[in-house]
Amino acid sequence: MSEKKKKTLPTRTVADNRRARFDYEIGETFEAGIMLKGTEVKALRTGKATIHESYAAGKNGELWLYNSYIPEYLEANRFNHEPRRPRKLLMHKRQIHKLTVAVEREGMTIVAMKVYFNEDGRAKVEVALGKGRKAHDKREAVKERDWNRDKARLMRDRG
Questions:
Q1: Looking at CB atoms within 10 Å, which of 20, 61, 90, 109 has the fewest?
Q2: Residue 155 within a domain
Q3: Which portions of the chain have biased composition (kind: Basic and acidic residues) (predicted)?
């Protein structure tokens, strides 16, 4: 008997929050599912979504993603979705509790890092616990990044 082979798709990043690594000290990261409507999934597949100012917050034991932008799907006409509506994140209760406690006690923020489709074709969000950086910390990070780039260039030229 032959086993059915499941067709796997490569992971494809839809939206990336590159600015978050500069604005926050990123701690632990988590993968979360996201509840979407049909038109939102189709709009995500076009690759025009943005999450550069989005964050997650706990509410009634659930985790919600706020301020993420998924543009309207043009072919959906009147059945379209609202582009900036809050979207529910799907995670285990222990993970949600861990994230909400870190936000309440330690003053951290739950930042959306990227939105992607996994191998099964499901939309996922990578969220991370981040602690906000001050302006002087950001300048220090830029100096360190530039020095590491120069150091790599010097090592490459020498050896």
A1: 61
A2: no
A3: 137-159
